[in-house]
Every structure is written in C-alpha cells, then in structure tokens.
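The methods section describes the discrete structure representation at length, but only in general terms. What matters is that the chain and its backbone geometry are given together, residue for residue. Nothing conveys this as quickly as seeing an actual entry. For illustration, here is how one protein appears when written out as sequence plus structure tokens:
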Amino acid sequence: MSKRVLFYIQHLLGIGHLKRASLIAEAMAESGLGVTVVLGGPDVAGVSFDGCARVLLPSVRASDETFKTLLDEHDVPIDDDWRETRAARLLTAFEAIEPDVLMVEQFPFGRRQFRFELMPLLAAARVAAKPPRVLSSVRDVLVRKADPKRSEEMVTLARSWFDRVLVHGDRNVLPLEASLPEAAGLGDRLIYTGYVVDTATAGADGDRVLGRDEVVVSVGGGAVGEPLLRAAIAARPLSRLSGKVWRLICGPNLSDSVLDELSWDAPPGVVFDRWRTDFPVLLRNCALSISQGGYNTVMDVLQAQSRAVIVPFAAGTETEQEFRARALERRGLLSVVDPGALSPNVLASAVDKALEIDPSASNIDFRGAEATARIVTKLCLGNEN
C-alpha cells in the first residue's frame, strides 16, 4: 500500500495558492504517494489535481481584498454553525484517510480565520493511533504583520505543532527571514524546496511561433486585475512596443461585464483571452511580460527568461507581492511599477526600461514541486534526513 498524504488547501481570493498547491500535489502523486487534497475554496477551471483524490469542504471565499468577510457558496457570511459543519467534515476525512503525512498549506503563517478547524485537526493528528508527520507548506514571502506579537505567535505555533516548514523558495534568492525575521527561531524545521513552477509545460518545446514578439499582459485570477488591464490598453501607444500585439489574459475571476466593456471597442492590435493553458509558452516567445506580482506568474516569467514589468498587488495590508518584486528588481531581473503610481505614462516608461534588462535567471532553483515530493516521501518512510 502506498504511503498516504492528506493536503489541506484553502484559497480565498486569487488562484495562486491553489495553482502552486496543485503542482505540489501532482508531483507527490507522480512519485507514488497516495495523495488526498482537502479543498475549501471555489472550483477553478484548469486546476485539476491530476492523480489525487479530493475531499470538498463547504466552499468559502473572501468578499474582497481586505479578507475581513468570508462568504459561503451562497454568498452569505459564514457563521458558527457553518464553522462547526466544516470542522466536523475535516476531522471525518482525517480519521478515514489515516495519513502518514498531514500537510497544511499556509497555516500557521496565514489562514488565521481557519483556526476553528485547523487547531482541532492538529490536535487529532497528535493523538492519533499512528500520528502523522505534520508539515506546513508556505511560499517564499509572508505578509508582514503590524503587530509583532502575531509574528511571534505564528512561529510559536509552528514550533509547537509542526515537524517541518517547507518553504517553496530559494534561500539564496529570498530567505523566509527577510519577510519574517522571527522565522530564524524555527531552526532545522525550515526546509527550502526551491520555487514551484510547472516545469513539464515550461520545459516543453511548444509552438516556437505562438505569441512571438507579443506583449503578454496577465492579471492572475483577475479578481483585482481591472486597473492594470485598463492601464495597459492606454499605455500601448505610448511605449516603444506600440507596434506589437498586446495580448491581455484577463483571468477567470474578472467580471464578465468588465471583460465585455474592455473588449467591445478594443484598439487594433489588442486581443483578449479569458485564460491560457499555454501561458509558459507565450512567455518564452513574447517580447515582454506585464503582470501582477503573484508567486506563480513571477516564477513562470523568471523561468521563461522574459523581459518583464511587475505591478504588484498591494491593497490593504498586502505586502508580499511588492516585497518579492523589489528583491528581484534589485537583482536586475525585472522592472517594478509602484502600484500606487500606476498610470498609462508610468507603465509605458517601465515597459521601455524593461527592454534594456538581461532576463537571465541563472542560479534560481525552480524544482520545488519535485523536491517537495522527495522530502514528503522520506518523511512518510520515517527518514528524517
């Protein structure tokens, strides 16, 4: 019987967490592990978790980028009854699967709103007849908390309840301590896997003319992408790339009404896609990429060695995208636009500046999914090294 992994994943607004988790889960399944993913957010087309069993909890999403209000599948704010139902279903799944490894995406470094079900899950894992190894799966950069006690609390929870913290990044590029200095207290619990990228797609030959010399504008899931899309349309005639095709990939979560408005009277040379499964191929062939600064998009851009402009999402308390983008800009790998200063003129100027960048991304580890599968397999087998 193959070793079993239970992987808890909760996305709330964008699709970045879900996409990264899907690549990790699929790599674990391909390595021979029996992977069950517990999914608590809305379904996203194109993210399939191939080879994995799925447990679907009652769906929840954030009402907006503040993440203060959580809505159920009927767009009703969640209440205590809803929480009790979710927590019970999660515990039932854990007891039925009896995993060798329990992996939790982002917690305790995020998803604080889900302590109501995650703390009982961790407690159940600790007293199980055969306790699983418990892992936290986190990205390279964390949102800095205004209250230092919150950061200390996260690290304390990780030390108390988790055997390992898998950081899906490259320590030589961005150590976790850069955004969370308290993480130094985790010691050897911290393991860097490398960045998680869809290497199967990104490494394929693809169509060498697909998207050749286009400007590819992408906004991830699209939920907060409207300002960048509008700025890109207006920036095109102001830039040195005004004669190129500008392809706007709008994401599954951009509203239909906004997409209809933008595309109804689009200028010649501007084309729209809702979603592209061949995004890495477009990046390899493009003249330039313009995007928000989500983890998955930035890693796709760097691996494709595209010249790039990043306009990070920084609404509310979000600091992660700009933190990562600025670090990569200091390495000379891309150009960053201050999201508070976004305008057609500013974006066009950034496009012209990015054309002078050498996009070589040498010495960055992009094998995070495969490395995670190896680490989890060893832990399933009782190998701590």
